[in-house]
Design a protein that fits this description.
Remorin C-terminal domain-containing protein, 1 helix, coiled coil, Remorin_C, mainly alpha
């Protein structure tokens, strides 16, 4: 009887440890997903900025060509 009670207590403790471990793992995975989303947002914003610079440079070059042909 005492042995089965002890075994039961060990199982409960093991279940608590496993639950805690799973919670830590879930928290870490959520943090990783958040970080990945933040990085993707920054990447996207940087790509937009670069594309805008390129578009502005093309527009200015075209304006310079027009000015050159009018001159």
């Amino acid at each position: 009887w005492a042995a089965s009670r002890s075994t039961s207590k060990l199982r409960r403790e093991e279940a608590k440890i496993t639950a805690w471990e799973n919670l830590q793992k879930a928290r870490a995975e959520a943090e990783i997903r958040k970080l990945e989303m933040d990085l993707e947002k920054k990447r996207s914003a940087s790509m937009d900025r670069i594309s805008n610079k390129l578009r502005a440079a093309k527009k200015k070059a075209e304006e310079m060509r027009i000015s050159l042909s009018n001159g």
